[in-house]
Design a protein that fits this description.
This protein has 500 residues and is an alpha/beta fold. 36% of the residues lie in helices and 23% in strands.
């Protein structure tokens, strides 16, 4: 069972619930069941949740209030599953709300876009934006694990059938998709279609059923029938990936839809409709995917027309933009997240500090550790201490302590490298062996290494008789390369490459 606490309305938009639908679909696909807890929900999304087979419980309280917290905790108790995972998506859910849920005994995932809480008590924080960085979450619990960047972008399952699909880039673009969010309270959509009317193009305009300006838009479309542009209004579409595949260009808000557009490789012009979209739209432009026109409140019809004409007539620019988008989002974000939620003992990685040196010395001199090392001699304290201090200052070294969900150290992992290649060394704490930690530490540390460094290839060297380590590294995705000499002894050489 997965509980999801998120809201949708005209004022806050539909993005929080829509990306939680993606997570719920992935959870459901693994044989689980999802329950949405909503204080606010639009009629169209209420229908969507029912069609998806999700349960919906309405909370009779002001969103983010103490009464809301009590109602959510009551739902956790009612479903009665030990350490039930709860996903929280909304800027109104502050540090106190998170702490209250943790005290209720759940495992907590918090969706975030800019570090909205003063402190994060969650087990996991997911920020799928390009601007996501660890410094945003300096104030967090020791056990909190961060899922940062577009590798965790949450895409609904209807998009995944387009993995490997190749977009065709025409010489002149003729088809334009307009999608400015499920609500669009300031009716920027109306201004955009007015700007598009003089162009000889086909336009499909997506509008949410909760859009308060829907009647005005329908009347406006009647007056555009004599214009060169052939414009179609689509309310609550059932096939957004198909519309994105149809279009040569999109004009979109800078919200979660941006990651769908990137995955589909659809060149885009972004309009900022909410404060949390500023970073997304500007970072995407800097990354080579799309053009940012600024805030919808300052919308300039002439500026959009200039940008539109340039993109429509420039196939090379559209080709570059399409490739940039596909390189940003691979569609595996939901899978990665659900895999983590399903782990009963999440792993947290933190840099080794000087206070850890004695603990690492004890682990290093454990008889099993020495037996599996290429140099099995016992390590003197002075030698170990000097070695650790040297490693902590080396630019090419990553040295991390791995802790479990209870914040107990369970292992240490080290990467030594230069340029694009590194070598991994793993130590599992003596009291943590045989519990599956080794594979988790390797997987998470390698994912983090590839995400945070220029290293693209990791080498591992294992003594042939160390069958347990061979199994652990193979389970983590390493593949046998060859036999190799390590410290004058023959070992098995394994490698793992970063996914492009």
């Amino acid at each position: 069972m997965l509980l999801i606490r998120a809201d949708a309305s005209v004022s806050i938009g539909t993005g929080h619930v829509m990306r939680m639908i993606a997570l719920a679909q992935a959870w459901q696909g693994g044989g689980g069941e999802a329950v949405f807890l909503c204080a606010e929900i639009t009629p169209a999304l209420e229908v969507r949740l029912k069609e998806e087979g999700f349960l919906l419980e309405k909370i009779q309280a002001s969103s983010g209030s103490h009464e809301d917290l009590e109602a959510t905790c009551a739902a956790i108790a009612r479903y009665g599953v030990d350490s039930i995972p709860v996903a929280l998506d909304g800027y109104q859910f502050d540090a106190a709300f998170q702490l209250g849920l943790k005290k209720a005994g759940c495992r907590l995932l918090v969706m975030d876009d800019y570090g909205h809480a003063a402190f994060f008590h969650a087990d996991w924080v997911l920020n799928q934006n390009l601007s996501a960085r660890e410094e945003l979450y300096a104030s967090r619990a020791p056990h909190t694990q961060l899922f940062l960047g577009t590798k965790f972008a949450l895409l609904r399952r209807e998009f995944l059938k387009y993995r490997g699909w190749q977009r065709q880039i025409p010489e002149i673009a003729r088809t334009v998709l307009v999608t400015l969010g499920g609500a669009d309270p300031d009716n920027v959509t109306g201004k955009v279609i007015e700007a598009l009317a003089p162009f000889d193009i086909q336009v499909k305009v997506v509008v949410g059923g909760s859009n308060p300006h829907l009647p005005d838009l329908q009347r406006a479309f009647e007056g555009l029938k004599t214009q060169p542009a052939k414009i179609e209004l689509i309310v609550n579409p059932t096939d957004m990936p198909g519309l994105m595949a149809w279009a040569d260009l999109a004009i979109a808000a800078g919200g979660s839809t941006a990651w769908e557009l990137a995955f589909m490789g659809l060149p885009s012009i972004f309009v900022i409709l909410a404060e949390n979209q500023v970073g997304i739209a500007t970072e995407l432009e800097s990354a080579g995917f799309g053009v940012c026109l600024g805030r919808g409140a300052d919308f300039d019809k002439g500026e959009l027309q200039i940008a539109l004409r340039r993109v429509l007539e420039n196939p090379a620019e559209r080709h570059r933009t399409s490739i940039a988008g596909r390189n940003l989002v691979d569609g595996m974000g939901c899978h990665r997240t659900v895999c983590q939620l399903n782990q009963t003992s999440p792993i947290c990685l933190r840099p080794v500090s000087y206070s850890d040196i004695e603990l690492l010395w004890e682990w290093a001199n454990d008889p099993v550790t020495r037996q599996n090392s290429f140099d099995s001699a016992k390590i003197p304290w002075e030698e170990h201490s000097a070695w650790c201090q040297k490693k902590l200052s080396e630019a090419g070294c990553r040295l991390w302590i791995a802790s479990n969900g209870g914040n107990a150290p369970v292992g240490c992992v080290r990467f030594d490298g230069k340029e694009s290649e590194a070598t991994i060394s793993l130590t599992v704490a003596p009291n943590a062996r045989g519990k599956g930690y080794g594979t988790k530490i390797i997987q998470q540390s390698c994912d983090r290494l590839f995400a945070e460094s220029p290293f693209r290839l990791v080498h591992a060297y294992i003594k042939p008789e160390n069958i347990a380590s061979v199994k652990v590294f193979e389970a983590a995705g390493f593949r046998y390369d060859s036999d190799a000499v390590c410290k004058q002894k023959t070992g098995r050489h394994y490698t793992l490459r970063a996914k492009s």
